[in-house]
Design brief:
The chain is built from two helices and ten strands, in the order H-H-E-E-E-E-E-E-E-E-E-E. With 195 residues, it is an alpha+beta fold. It has a single domain, classed as Lipocalin, CATH 2.40.128. It is globular.
Length: 195
């Protein structure tokens, strides 16, 4: 019995040392590797670098809604946008908070470069409890304009939409437009953001 007790005590004393070498808190940064890791492409890549240079930072916004079936009386909002790179500079978060006669808007766009398709992917969340988040199409550059093309269901049919971002060194303008069904785009919302 005495040898079993000594063996059990020895195991108890050694166990913490054994487990501390193997276990690591899941949120702790990875421990340094003794072997060199392979080199990887830059996390931001040129596509995300270009987008971040145009959008990253804090902005004051003024939104103007054109009279339409969405905004029968037109409308406006004023607010703030905060844009930053996250996830190792592979993803851009565009967070918006605004309010005015057109109603309150809280939301975010998540944008990343999809190397397989050579397009930016968009994911959008807004303060709509019935349908808060969804994939929002793809984006690409048309010269100096960043263009997001996507489809939305409207009155039971799929409609084509386009958000176009144009830039100056101290501002960007976002034009949200809807295809009228004949290829012409109707501008519905114009957002001007200044630093």
């Amino acid at each position: 019995m005495k040898p079993l007790l000594i063996f059990s005590l020895a195991l108890l004393l050694m166990a913490p040392a054994a487990f501390s070498q193997e276990r690591q808190h899941p949120l702790a940064p990875p421990k340094a590797q003794s072997k060199a890791l392979p080199a990887f492409e830059s996390a931001a890549g040129p596509e995300m670098e270009r987008l971040a240079k145009a959008l990253a930072g804090d902005w004051s916004t003024t939104e103007t809604m054109q009279r339409s079936k969405f905004f029968p009386n037109g409308g406006s909002r004023h607010g703030k946008v905060h844009v930053k790179l996250v996830a190792g500079a592979t993803t851009l978060i565009y967070e918006v908070h605004s309010d005015g006669s057109a109603g309150k808007l809280d939301g975010m766009l998540v944008i990343w470069w999809d190397k397989a398709t050579s397009l930016y992917q968009f994911f959008a969340c807004f303060n709509d409890p019935a349908d808060p988040c969804k994939s929002r199409g793809t984006a690409h550059w048309e010269g100096a304009t960043f263009v997001n093309d996507y489809d939305l269901m409207l009155d039971g049919r799929k409609t084509q939409w386009r958000d176009s971002f144009s830039f100056t060194p101290s501002s960007h303008t976002l034009i949200a437009a809807m295809n009228q069904g004949d290829g012409t785009m109707q501008v519905l919302i114009t957002t001007v953001a200044t630093r």
